[in-house]
Hints:
This protein is mainly beta. It has helices spanning about 1-10, 15-20, 25-35, 100-105, 150-155, 190-195, 245-250; strands at about 40-45, 50, 70, 85-90, 95-100, 110-115, 140-150, 165-175, 180-190, 200-205, 205-210, 220, 235-240, 255-260, 260-265, 275-280, 285, 290-295, 305-310, 315-320, 320, 330-340, 345-355, 380.
Amino acid sequence: MGADLIRRAIxxxxxxxxxxxxxxFRALAWxxxxxxxxxxxxxAVPLAAEMPLSGFDTWITPNDLFHILTTMADxxxxxxxxAWRLSVDGLVExxxxxxxxxxxxxxxxxxxAVLECAGNSxxxxxxxxERSHLGNGYVGNAEWLGVPLHRVLERAGVKSSAREVxxxxxxxxxxxxxxxxxxxxxxxxxxxxxxxxxxxxYQMNGVPLPREHGGPVRAVxxxxxxxxxxxxxxxxxxxxxxxxxxxxxxxxxxxxRVDGLVRDEAVTQVAVKSLIVRPAADAKLTVGTHTVAGAxxxxxxxxxxxxxxxxxxxxxxxxxxxxxxxxxxxxxxxxPWRVTQPGSYTLMARATDTSGAVQPFAYDLDSGGFAVNQxxxxxxxxx
Length: 383
């Protein structure tokens, strides 16, 4: 409806200068840009653009196929790297302010890691959940270059009473669950913040971090869901308590059943998961030999095996893992499937990681639409 009003206003001769500030106008511009980059725009404001199935064709996801999912940024922040500053404060011996060049001058580190939205694959859950427009494409595998967060914290001198580190972005807004405008901010336990693979990233797949992906600097927390990979980073704060920001206490939370008790906790580590990429759902195949192929990943743990079933889960066979082991990246896999009879077939894939975690067959609705990792059957027809 909003887009239609914009078009009518243009036809009526309203100056574009007056329209350019309209949120729908900005959304149309970003949606057009995302579509030009081959993404599938599922929501205009705030922007949600999904990677198509073809994005699983390469081990490293190209930047123009990498999903974009914003929480409240409208428009997206425009930050000149020369003017960018990072403040480090709180429980530190000496507050620090870094420029872009000063950050890049610190020893860097490259990590290839999956970044998956905590709500990825939400449209596969039944009954439908809120924001069920989220398909399987809110995930990507990139090479990130940045400075380990611990180097910045060590420069400021973290006090012994530190318990958590708050990552605060430069995007602000008023989400439905907040009483006032707030910046987007998440916190990490001090141990995770000091891990050498937790990065302040300024480069993605060999180029400066694009604006739509959080440039000039964002956090990348390998093994954890994308909500912690704070974009447009502007502040790092060290505190001695659990952070009570709304994006920690009111959103991205799930219930876990432990020893018969239900515990409410924040979404953190990426769950073990595999997806069938080829053939596509509802594909029409012929009798003969086909390759069932897909991707599998887990939060900071390599994939040990992927099993594939072509008869709805009655029998299983092991797929071949294609890529070399990689702690945070996805693994591609292939399974030769010989079909001798026409008919309808249900294909399934199930991954296991090095900790022994295995994909469940059913989704636990207590998880609130997050960490969706159940086995996803697809049906194909053989003629």
